[in-house]
User: What shape does this take?
Amino acid sequence: GGGGDDTIDLGAADLSADTVVFSASASANGVDTITSFETGVDAMDFSAMTTLTGTRVVSSSSSTSKVTLSSAKSLVVTDSTAGDWSDVAAIMTAGIDVIGDVTGDTIIAVNNGIDTRIYLYEDDAVDNLSIQDAELTLLATLQTTLVSESAFVIA
Assistant: This one.
């Protein structure tokens, strides 16, 4: 999508593999709306974001199966949040173990049963036990409810 807020249509149910490539920083991306994303076919490429840390590329996380934030470059939070997105930081905190100061960034995907939002988490080193709204930057909204681990491309 490049800079600015874009609407990116990947083509409805065409089974053609499309890749949305994100820039190196949140400020260079804007907030994109991605339509017709096919889970298991299409992908989001975050390889340019060199500040992502962790030993695992992608991990699924939920309130019943938490993942430590610093161990993954990206997380798919499988708990659904409220339809109005008012509690997204709380849902992330419920599904992710935040232990101490996180020295790198993480891509976090969370859905509300209708859409999936993709956030960049940047630790501010203030509250090291939970995710705060100020630490999140919305990168994109996918008009689909499910984003699987196969949807992420990260170097």
In short: DSSP finds two helices and twelve strands in the chain. The longest helix spans residues 88-95. The two ends are 19 Å apart (CA to CA).
